[in-house]
Structures are given as structure tokens and as C-alpha cells.
Specification:
Blueprint lengths: L1 H14 L4 E6 L12 E3 L1 E4 L2 E5 L5 E3 L13 E3 L4 E6 L6 E12 L4 E9 L4 E8 L6 E4 L6 E7 L4 E13 L4 H23 L1
Antiparallel strand pairs: 1-13, 2-5, 3-4, 4-7, 5-6, 6-13, 7-12, 8-11, 8-13, 9-10, 9-12
Amino acid sequence: MTLLRATAVAAILAAGGAQAQSTTISFDTLEQPGFFGSVFTSYSESGYDFNSSFLGFLSSPHQGNFAYAGSAGLGASALSTTTLKRTDGAAFSLSTISLADLVSFPGSYDVTFVGHQVGGGTVTQTFSLDGSHTFSDYTFTGFSNLLSATWKEGAFHTFQVDNIGASVSAVPEPATYGMLLGGLGLLAFLRRRKNAA
């Protein structure tokens, strides 16, 4: 009896043991010397896609550029909205991000991120940038179960993103579902026998 109960519990734990797959989107492949940054219509890394709504381009400053902030980052043109999604359409979470000034008037300014959640809800968070060409780290709160995330460049302040901490829940294997059902069946069987006794 104890062995059956232990087997059922192990099956349930195994089914719930799928861990989130975490990654840091670092844009390292965009790093190269030169004065001008790269310009491209879309960018993909580690299963995540980035697209821009305005003028259709994203950019990455290089070491010789006055906007270089210490590593390759991803920026966009003024007034554009950048959208981040999973390539496979899965829901994901954001935990951290690094932000730095790209091209802007002097002074600090705010940057707002909007997470579009599964089921239609949204979550927003605003970070204040100091206007320097140096990356600073920020932490997201509540940016989970997202279908996409968006952020908009200003008219007079544009910024770049780097080291985005993202994760997606691992999809259990079919065998894991079988173990879960088997474990639940064993628990139901044990309860029925106990009640009958």
C-alpha cells in the first residue's frame, strides 16, 4: 500500500516538475566595430522575435558610435513601437532588462513597457533613465504569462535595450501527462479501497 502511494506521489511530482526555460537576450551577435550601427527590419534571438512599427527598422550602435553604451544593444527610430514575441507563439515572462540612452536631448526621461497577457489583460511598468550612454539594470514586476511586450521610443529621447531576462514554461512531454494520469488513478484507487474497508 505504501509503495503504491509513493509511486502515485512521485508521478504527480514528476508531472509538475517541468521547469521554466530561462534565457538572457544579449544581442552579442550584433557586436562589431565601426562608426555606424547595423539597421535591419527585424531581429530574432533565442526563440524571441523583435519587430518595429515605424519606418520598419531596428538598430544596434557599435563601439565607435557616440551612442555606444558598453555592449551591443537594440534600439529603434524615434516614435516607433518595438514588439517582442516568442517565435513559437508561446506565453513567456520577463524578469530583467538593461536600458541606456541611444540618441536624445540631454536629461532624464521615462520609458514605459506594456505586457500583453494571455486572456487579454495588460501590465505596465515605467523606468526612469538618466540620459547617459551607460546601461543600467531594471527589474520587471508582474510581467508573466505574456503573449507580447511593447515599448515606444520618444520623439526626442530614444533608448536601447540589452540583456533581457526572459523565460517560458517547459511543455511537459506526453509521457509526463501519462504519469500524471496514472498517479491520479492510483490515488483514486487507494481512496476507494480505504473507504470500502
